[in-house]
Amino acid sequence: MIDSHCHLADEAFDADLEAAIARAQQAGVTGALCILAAGDEAEAARARGVRAKWAAVRFAAGVHPHAAGAFAGRAADAAQATRAHAAAFDTCGVGEIGLDYHYDFAPREVQREVFAAQLALARELDKPVIVHTREATDDTFDILAASGGVRGVFHCFTGDVAMARRALDIGFHVSFAGIVSFPRADSLREAARSVPADRLLVETDSPYLAPVPYRGKRNEPAFVSRVLEALAAARGAAPAVLAEQTSHNFVSLFGPS
Ligand SMILES: [Zn+2]
Ligand SMILES: [Zn+2]
User: In the chain, how many H helices and how many E strands?
Assistant: First the structure.
């Protein structure tokens, strides 16, 4: 199986990166997409270590909505930072990018401009996008529609059936994280059942959002097996079949390595 979204270059893995990679491999994780924050040079240095230790890791980079505030009035510079990271890490996607109106760490207008500028870059580079959206559904779809056609994935999906339908209607994939294993996530599991098998991805979003039974602990790519089990249970599918399907979907979205 492939962890389609993790932050393996986060400092949370400083102490045990090699062991975390070994545990992932032992759990049957054959690849991972490591999300990088464009412009973060400290993280970039750690990412070179990740690349050296795990050849099967691929990278994506973008300016996260939380970090958009630094680019107020200069969204083009955010796209430039993403472009530089894309070259340095041979990225297979642009992201994570999007809108987060829950935390509002950056002014919403700036988030929208930075999101739009990176969508334009994704079109130019012909790369799929990894979208982060929270409490900003309508604006997210409006900006995606205005971008003139990008492909990609809604990562760490937390919406309902109707929102999944909107994502599918514009050709996007939908990625589920550990939240799908949480006891009270019934409406999310209902949404998970509504997504066709060929549009599903699984992810950890580690070091955040550990699935049951690791909830509250640091998350890591090995635990994508738990996400996959929870998603399979929600869908009444065999985990092995879902593992193969989601790995196949990952390659069809991001291309062969
Ligand atoms: Zn995110
Ligand atoms: Zn993330």
Answer: 9, 8
